[in-house]
Amino acid sequence: MNVLAIIPARSGSKSVPHKNIRQIAGKPMLAYSIEHAIKSRYINRIIVSTDSEEYASIAREYGAETPFIRPAEYATDTALDYDVFCHALNWLKDKEGYEAELVVQLRPTYPIRNIEDIDNMIEQMISCPDADSIRSIAPAKEIPYKMWTKGENGRICPLITDISECYNMPRQQLPKVYYQNACIDIFRPRCIWEYHSMTGKHILGYEMDKNYDIDTEEEFKRTSTYLSLMQGGKRFVFDIDGVIAEFDEKLDYANVKPRTDMVNVIKKLHEAGNEIVLHTARGYVTGIDWSEVTKEQMERFGVPYDEIHFGKPNADYYVDDKMMDMDALLELFENEV
């Protein structure tokens, strides 16, 4: 089966200038989507559609083909995906006689993907020949049943009218809705040729709970930090109480409960090849030796670590130029734990 991946990478991004080739955790962002396609068990041709010779050179460096430079009229802010893919498929058919059976769109703004998702979606298309396309979707946080349109006179009207006064109903009683998260789209070329569409009529949905699309500087920085952490080779020092274990004002350390969200983050960091050091003030004030209790507790909690140190000074505030806020770290991994 000819499974073609097309990565659309125009050069004119305004929200994050040149984001498609901007360095993120040591590589141009474009490189990650190329690598995702290379790792797929089904994709056997990878093309980057770009309007830039510079972008094309980078794409080839990381293993993609760039048999053409995309015409400028298909690289504007208002150009449609259909225009980009129609041009690419027409070019390949006219110049090479090449026709794909499935076309996979991998947007370069997703430097984090699960390769299994790509292959699972391809397999669904193979097993359902009547399907025109499949799109990755995620549960919507804001639901259309609570949305309104507003007229010039200030009057508002419900967006959804097929359920009477759905805007007054509890969320739990309303249908579950999804949004297309733009991570992975797969379609049959007949969508282009017959329907003049990117999806066709019979559309499957593949549900995901992760979203790493980059469209702002804030999203760029967050994803860059995450990728850097997951490359491993870094040394993390974690406090125990209030971070790994719930804080107990009575200092009854033997009976504290774990903070499972942070324990799971530590596991991810350790699995990625980072060094984990635990440092605690247990016993600093009272002089009680909590070392054996603490070691047993960390094992019971399932906390992986390379070193553990006791004797951290008790304080009201700790000031450190390398401090990473605990909530910020949890937010980085909110889709992973």
Give a quick precis of the structure.
This protein is an alpha/beta fold and 337 residues long.
The largest beta-sheet arranges its strands as 4-1-5-9-6-10
The averaged pLDDT comes out at: 93
Q: Classify the oligomer.
A: single chain
- Terminal Cα separation, in Å? 36 Å
Please characterize this protein's 3D structure.
The chain is of the alpha/beta class and 337 residues long. It folds into three domains: 3-140 and 177-216, Spore Coat Polysaccharide Biosynthesis Protein SpsA, Chain A (Alpha-Beta Complex), CATH 3.90.550.10; 141-175, no CATH class; 232-332, HAD superfamily/HAD-like (Rossmann fold, 3-Layer(aba) Sandwich), CATH 3.40.50. It contains nine helices and 13 strands. It has a six-stranded mixed sheet, with helices on both faces. It has a three-stranded parallel sheet with strand order 11-12-13, covered by helices on one side. A two-stranded antiparallel sheet has the order 2-3. Strand 12 (275-280), helix 8 (291-301) and strand 13 (307-310) form a beta-alpha-beta unit. The chain is globular, with a radius of gyration of 25 Å. The two termini are 36 Å apart.
